[in-house]
Amino acid sequence: MSAGETWRALYRHFRPHRSIVALGALFTLIGAATGLAQPLAAKALVDRLGSDESITSVLLVLTALVVLGTAIESVGAYILERTAESVVLAARRTLIGRLLRLRLPEVERSQPGDLMSRVTSDTTLLRAVTTQSVVSAVSGGLTFLATIVLMGLMDAVLLGVTLGVIVLVGGVMALVLPRIARATERAQEAVATISTALERAFGAFRTLKASGAEERETAAVRAAAEEAWRHGVRSAKWQAVAWSSVGLAIQVSFLAVLGIGGARVASGAIPVSTLVAFLLFLFYLIDPVSKLVEAASQYQVGSAAIARIVRAERLETEEPAAGGGTDAEPAAGPATVAFEDVRFRYRPDLPEVHHGVSFEIPGPGMTAFVGPSGAGKTTVFGLIERFYEATGGRVLVDGRDVRDWSTAALRAAIGYVEQDAPVLAGTLRENLVFAADGATEEEIRDVLVRAGLASLVERLPDGLETLVGHRGSQLSGGERQRVAIARALLRRPRLLLLDEATSQLDAVNELALRDVVAQVSREVTVLVVAHRLSTVTLADRIVVMDAGRVRAVGTHEALVAEDPLYGELAATQFLASASPGAR
Ligand SMILES: Nc1ncnc2c1ncn2[C@@H]1O[C@H](COP(=O)(O)OP(=O)(O)OP(=O)(O)O)[C@@H](O)[C@H]1O
After folding, report:
1. Which end of the chain is more exposed for a tag (fewer CB within 10 A), N or C?
2. What is this model's ipTM?
3. 3-state SS string for 356-395
């Protein structure tokens, strides 16, 4: 990101808060000013001690000044801190709003842990830059200018000497500051790697343990932590260089002013008092210059964070109302699906997955998609749901191109059960109503019975309120599948997409589910990626796919007779994976 873009992005986050930051800065300045008035009041107090005047009023004024000064300063500090938190909140809200709307290909290209760290850790770094550094820059800048003007009034030559040294500091800063930014960005990237590595480990925790990979994964996470430490230390080192160059500059200017000023006093160019006053101003300069350096280094830290935040904000999202169609009247009854010469590749750099897929499915009824692994069956579902856009041809639902649907309306018509039947951390109830927010108790009960979950819920001490653990870890594989099916049914879909699990269900369960699906397919269009003979024999129509093309469409009996690949599949793969009770 260019410096201009970084500045604009940071300013965008700061802008809504600019008046409140100005107020906070004003309070801080007033607090500081009352601090300056205290020595004056103290002087008056001491003066009165010498005479016989009463000191009560001065004491009262002094006390009031102390109390007022402290109060105003702390209110100012509170306002600034609060605003800093609001800046972080606003950045998080925007990011969160976008992340959960990302297009699927963007998520598949990213690491979830990395995306998460942008919301949690990078936004935190915005805190200081948008408030503290602005206040430091403004108050430091103003005091700096005022001191320089006063110095100029004292002696232009000595000012020239001082400015010469300050320009040198500026040069050092120009070298150091980008290094602070770079080190901070690397440190943040390493923090993201920690999240990514942990997410990977927790995502497959059983496999991790079973593979005895704890040591290796721990080493990987530790390496990332050490990387973060290294870059954090590097950033600290450059910040220390920045600070020490300020200290050094002041010392050098002090010596230079002392030397050159001394010579000027000796030659009679300036009186001694001017030299003394100038030196005092030089010491006054320490504070504003330090503030300016602080502001600049904070800005570098913030700009490293904002670069990562902006990159996440630029990832492509999908809008629920995307597409041009009018969805005023949601259609009723079973949906129809058609593919017209659909070509598709997941990414431009990957080979084509669909090389012209065509089929037509009237509703209702069950259609099974079969074919060797990698034939492109699951991809059909991804295109119907419009997780991905076809690169050629048309995908039609209800005779209408999916690109003309709004994604919200399109997906509202569909119930989708993924192959690995994801269950989310939370209660059983939350999992069921995940796709159907307003489902009634009766609907939930009905769907539990249909998916064969009623007895499980009865057995559980907390019933529907039972927590199912991370990814449903407290449920069996079969139970997870049934929960996923119940969830999809509760959505009352007009089109049910079922990516059958390759793993075995026990015979009783499989029969029960088969009945549910058969029953649903009487009213709803059901598409199943089938791995079991029991499913295909039940299907009204079978679409045989091979290497990104549709090879044949027909009934089980017809295909067994006519299509050699299907015959082979039916004889080997299906038979091997069909459970005895279901045949
Ligand atoms: N998200 C993705 N990004 C890139 N390539 C993908 C993605 N998903 C699938 N593929 C590739 O696309 C091809 C078709 O995959 P698809 O999942 O549609 O096959 P399938 O017929 O459903 O296979 P299976 O029966 O094994 O589930 C495969 O070669 C796969 O490697």
Report:
1. C
2. 0.96
3. EEEEEECCCEEEEEECCCCCCHHHHHHHHCCCCCCCEEEE
